[in-house]
Amino acid sequence: MNARTFRRFLIYLCCGVLSIACAEPDPESRSVEPTGTTQATVGTAREANATFSAQRAFAILEKQCEFGPRPPGSPAHRETQNYLFTELQKYANNVALQPLEYTVGTKTLHLNNILAEFVPGTLPVTGKGETGETLLLAAHWDTRPIADHDPKPENREIPILGANDGASGVAILLELARVFKAHPPPRRIVIVLFDGEDYGRTADDMFIGSRFFARNLGKWKPDYGILLDMVGDKDLTLPIEANSWNANQAFTAAIWNRAAALGLAPFQQRLGPAIMDDHVPLIKVGIPMVDIIDFDYPYWHTIEDTVDKCSPKSLEVVATLVISIVYDGL
């Protein structure tokens, strides 16, 4: 995807004023900088698909759920952060925490987006090389502190486990990190795991990490990106998310057309609902972003969003599309 194509995609550019302030550096913040090792040659989509393991991805989903519900401020939230950071260290050229503070009423949350960079390989063909693009792959790693959509009123103040709503997208991206290490992509990849997506009782206190990231892109600024949210459902259905379509029709259509070309049946060529999600703050600052999300999930924001509702096959379907985009472009 070149610069000329991007200009067609950018339908609007607007900036929101966000009530998020940068925190003092987290005393436990860590960063791993790239080493001076020799750059590897670019992998292929075929190699990447052969390396991606749906079972490993599902095990990563299960591992997150073993920590329990992971809302900000909980011990499980901190344990999960350490796990995700440590895993990304094994594969990425650069890993960092992006700390922020956010105040809700009298409570101050200490949050961290988790950022990882994958340097592109070089093509073993004279006169060709990396594309110069940066592709953002994102998901949220926190879980909702209240099951406010649970059918039983007595459950509505209980935190959710978030097997699909949070853990599924993260699981795909962590397994893809391993793939990128083995088969370097032809473009720079930035993985961002957003914190605080699901915190508030209203949208005013949700998407905290992505709003902060959109205001503080710095060296992590992508050319375009894909958000994965609620992509592990056994009964996976993925219509075109309307906010993505309204902002970037050509980009969104290209993704669903690629899914059709790959024979990925859960990607449906129809317009679904407009979802407020972590892609919207990025769209507002001019980054073409598409949300891949199955919002037709009966266990959304209930205590029944558990591992048994998810499937390795669903993770594999979504990963197959992402791998094709990463290695072959659009």
Kindly describe this structure.
The structure is a single chain. The longest helix has 17 residues, at 312-328. Helix 5 packs across helix 10 (312-328). This protein has ten helices and ten strands. Strand 5, helix 5 and strand 6 (188-194) form a beta-alpha-beta unit. Strands 1, 2, 3, 4, 5, 6, 7 and 10 form an eight-stranded mixed β-sheet that branches. It is globular, with a radius of gyration of 19 Å. The chain is an alpha/beta fold and 330 residues long. The protein has one domain (3-18, 40-328): 3-Layer(aba) Sandwich (Aminopeptidase). It has helices at residues 3-9, 45-51, 54-66, 75-89, 167-182, 208-215, 242-247, 249-261, 279-284, 312-328, and strands at 21-22, 31-32, 94-104, 107-118, 134-140, 188-194, 224-229, 238-240, 267-271, 289-293. 33% of the residues lie in helices and 18% in strands.
Question: How would you summarize the topology of this molecule?
Answer:
Elements: H1 3-9, E1 21-22, E2 31-32, H2 45-51, H3 54-66, H4 75-89, E3 94-104, E4 107-118, E5 134-140, H5 167-182, E6 188-194, H6 208-215, E7 224-229, E8 238-240, H7 242-247, H8 249-261, E9 267-271, H9 279-284, E10 289-293, H10 312-328
Parallel strand pairs: 5-6, 5-7, 7-10, 8-9
Antiparallel strand pairs: 1-3, 2-3, 3-4, 4-6
